[in-house]
Amino acid sequence: MAAQNGASPHATIAPLAPAADQVFATVGEPLFRAVRAGGYRKIVLQVPAGLVRNAHDLAARLRNETGAVTLVLARACFGACDLPSPDEAPGAEAAVVLGHAPIPNVASPLPTFFVEMRDPGGDPERLAQIVKDAGLPRSLGLVASIQHLDLVPPFVAALSRHGIAGVTAPGDRRLMYPAQALGCNYTTAESVASQVDAFLFLGTGRFHPLGLAFAVDRPVYALDPLRGELEPPIDRGSIVRRRQLLVASCRDARRWGLLVSNFVGQDRTAMARALQAKAAAHGREAELLVFGRLDPNDLLGRDLDAYVCTACPRIALDDSELYPKPVLTAPEFLMALGELPLEPYRFDTYH
Description:
Layout: E1 22-24, H1 29-38, E2 42-46, H2 55-66, E3 69-72, E4 94-98, E5 112-115, H3 124-133, E6 139-144, H4 152-161, E7 165-167, H5 187-190, E8 198-202, H6 207-215, E9 220-224, E10 229-231, H7 236-249, E11 255-261, H8 269-281, E12 285-291, E13 306-309, H9 313-318, E14 327-328, H10 330-336
Parallel strand pairs: 1-5, 2-3, 2-4, 4-5, 6-7, 6-8, 8-9, 11-12, 11-13, 13-14
Antiparallel strand pairs: 9-10
Helix pairs in contact: 3-4, 7-10
């Protein structure tokens, strides 16, 4: 992932992407040149919801610049765990994925060009002043979405000039870069939680800060780098208590459904089988249910008391109210069986 390929400056820190994949900071000639060099005749383009508006213009650019037939995958995209499959785009020889970095321990179904859409916006000095004026703790763990990772080093330096320590660290094998956040994995934060008083997320939206709050027992703030808006800390106690009450309500459940994803980056069949054995050891029944994109209606009418999601933990945590029966994460299931205590609460970190 050399600089001439348009890779981000962090890429040399942890060049862990599978060999068939290439990583680019943004859309441009380096990407087009790499696609042309591959000689691909048909490619599929995948974009997250926030970039759908520009998807068709980009598809036209790819066609014009590379000469390849370009298909746009219409379905929603949840991340680099949810890559286009050959079945979804028959005949496609490669994929272009926007807005995500590779997950190093996930093999892509097709040769994949990851375009991380790095955004250099945000004034580090202004943002550091906002943090200081808000009276945040003087030791902060920093976590960022992939788009804003380039801001982290200058922001750490700016914080230091204001007497605030910004702490970053690499994560486990599922994370490409230090300080990176994934919805299922916050090990870049978990590894430094004992060293900091709070965490600050650089990015937009509530998805990552909420996951971070589940994963670490520290206050979690969020700062929009472009707007300079600092959100108040998430009430972790409240969201954890709601999950603990749900777990307690499932302690007498006898028949369980173990939800197993067939997404290449979310398949934890081995875990589901281990949980099935745990259920049997406690005199419970547990059936494995395989799915691709889970719809609440898929769980209607089943003679089951509760479910365990072994796919993305955010399905259980964020969408709980959508389902007709309780849906727990794997650690929560072990709490319901009495194998783990309710405290401390354990986030289902996807390794």
